[in-house]
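Quick one - inputs below.
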Amino acid sequence: MNPVPLASGGLLAGAIVATAASLWMLLPNGREFQSTRRLGLLLGAAAMLAFVAAGRRLGGLGEEAVFLLVSLVAVVSAAATIVSRSPVYAAIWFALSLTGVAGVLLVLGAQFLGVATIVVYAGAILVMFLFVLMLAQPAGLAPYDRVSNEPFLAALAGAVLLGVLSLSIGRLSAGVPACCAPPARAAAAADAAGAATDAPTAAGTTPAAAADLAAGPPAAVAADPLSDNQVARLGAELFGRHLVAVEAAGVLLLVALIGAIAIVSRGEAALAAEADAVRAADRRTSR
Amino acid sequence: MNAASLPLLQNALTVGAILFSLGLVGILTRRNLIVMFLAAEMMLQGISVSLVAWSRYHGDFGGHVLVIFVLTVAACEAAVALVFVLQAFSRTGRLDAAAWQSLREATVGRTIDRELPAVDTVPPRFPTLTPAGVQPATDADDALEREHV
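Output:
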């Protein structure tokens, strides 16, 4: 990661200060002083331009800062989901966590998945959870919401799991194992190894071949999620290579739908039968 | 794809690992059925972040496709699970996982809530608006008329 140039950092700081100043001038303060507001508007426009320029010159810093922000939102609100005692608050914190996760997915270049996470999770699944909560939650905090099972052991287990995962993530810095290296890099590494072994014989032909291999095979470049028409190419991949899996997912959705309805109707029949039996028993005892 | 994608991969994998661990802790400790399912969904979110991070690193769509199937399975799971939760609630009147502890292993002891923490006696504080101005004198008959449409 390149160090941030000082001029770009100064530009960014200037943009931030200008934004704050323009907000201060634009906010209503009880006086009708038109020239101050006009100056504030001008300053705000200049600040936006400076932001755009600084974002271009800073390069990676914007991505890193946004990633830090959204991942902080996701993780902090996920922790709040776990620890909040009211299940309604837990569901709302989970919605915020989903927003953060969608931001992380967007930073990672998964535009369709970021939007789908918001639509499917926050829009459908979470609202269903909240509906059931409103239907089934007793007033106030239930006793089982005020205690938890073995909190110390569970936190210890979580810490151990996180530690092991972080160890294996940190070991990626030493070198990605050969199974998991991206194809372009694996080809480049193989090429480098080959060039090291038989450098004298292939000295005349390697530059062009090395450039080809370092650029990766054309198929890999075409499948790069970060280039244009991402959603269209994702759809082509989904309905091309994974068509059978899509059909299986459709069958799974249908089975889940029918299963949910079947459980509800049989459960209601069983409850009605139970109520009938209780009523019959009452009649027998009253006689 | 650039050379800087390894730190991004590691950061995203770390976020996914944290989400997965938090979901694990939640599903182990919480007793409310709904919160347990929220924790399970959180574990799925951690997996999704990790898959997309690898997909970004490799420069292909494999992780994206897998995450789409994860979304599908999560929707199915939520539908069936919520039906189960509603049935369980209508039978026991509680959203408590311990209400179904007769299904436990024979060697596991019972969960009995003997020493519950005291009920919150301090009422929650909600924001209130300070009364502003003088309350206008109202006539009960005026309220029945509509002067303006």
